[in-house]
Amino acid sequence: MNKQFALIFLTFVVCFSFSIPSIAAEKGKAILEYKHDVTGDGKPDEIMVYGIPFKGGSPYYQKVWAEIITSEGQKLKIDYEGGYEPKLDFADLNHDGVKDILYSSATGGSGGIYNYALHTAKGGKVKEIPLPTPLAIQGYFDQDFVAVIKIPGMKNAITLDLWSRRKDYISTGLYQKNGQLNEPTELMIDPIAFFEVIKIKDKEGFGLKGYRQISGAYHADQLGVVETEWYFENGEWHPVHIEWKATDYKKKEKKNR
């Protein structure tokens, strides 16, 4: 009987000792502190951002969350994806008269892509607001060292003369020396890399501006960026301005080839 009691006690001690680190870890590290009215009562709420580093001193947070203590003492929590340098931005993006909460953190990848999440806490209730759906952009290489990009919302396709990059494309087997494309090849179109809150021209209030990189044969072979301004209206995001900005590279006129 004593042996059974000792075994049970030892098992309890072992289990409890293993549970302590996980409980402590869930407390996380306080990263940021904000004061904004996100519930709509006209009084500032306290917003704390916490994270659990991947390892002791790692700048990458494997888990991130925000805790909101409202002016009435109510406690709210929003869980986020991990990442580097997490932060919150506050703006009324759904135009209901209350500031929304835009989370971002860097993924650390080569494309400079960020994690994002948008929430409202109006009335003390947390609700996620979907982010804009990326445009269905099409891009491909064409004969004679040319790339073609078709962007919804833009009347004409974009044609890029890539003659100045021909040596690289020939060496990688994309093209033959005469400009013949070896096989149909699509361009590399990234997801939306990051958003920023902006004032939308001729619209009331704020919106989001998204940036998408388009590359050629490999990611470092950057061709340009699609910048899209989005405005939330009638429960949906609408693109109100789309602009193509080509990477600054030396072009060679066809007549000089």
Please describe the biggest sheet, giving its number of strands, its sense, and whether it closes into a barrel.
8 strands, antiparallel
Count of DSSP-assigned helices: 2
Low-confidence stretches: 1-25, 250-257
The H-and-E topology, N to C, reads as: HEEEEEEEEEEEHEEEEE
Over the alpha carbons, how many angstroms does the gyration radius reach? 25 Å
Silhouette: elongated
Number of strands: 16
What portion of residues belong to β-strands? 35-45%
Q: How is the secondary structure organized here?
A:
Elements lengths: L1 H26 L1 E8 L8 E9 L6 E10 L5 E6 L2 E9 L8 E7 L7 E7 L6 E2 L9 E5 L3 E5 L7 E4 L4 H6 L16 E2 L4 E6 L6 E10 L6 E12 L2 E11 L11
Antiparallel strand pairs: 1-2, 2-3, 3-4, 3-5, 5-6, 6-7, 7-8, 9-10, 10-11, 12-14, 13-14, 14-15, 15-16
Describe this structure in words.
Strands 1, 2, 3, 4, 5, 6, 7 and 8 form an 8-stranded antiparallel beta sheet that branches. Strands 12, 13, 14, 15 and 16 form a 5-stranded antiparallel beta sheet that branches. The N terminus and C terminus are likely disordered. It contains 2 helices and 16 strands. The protein is elongated and about 70 Å long. The termini are far apart.
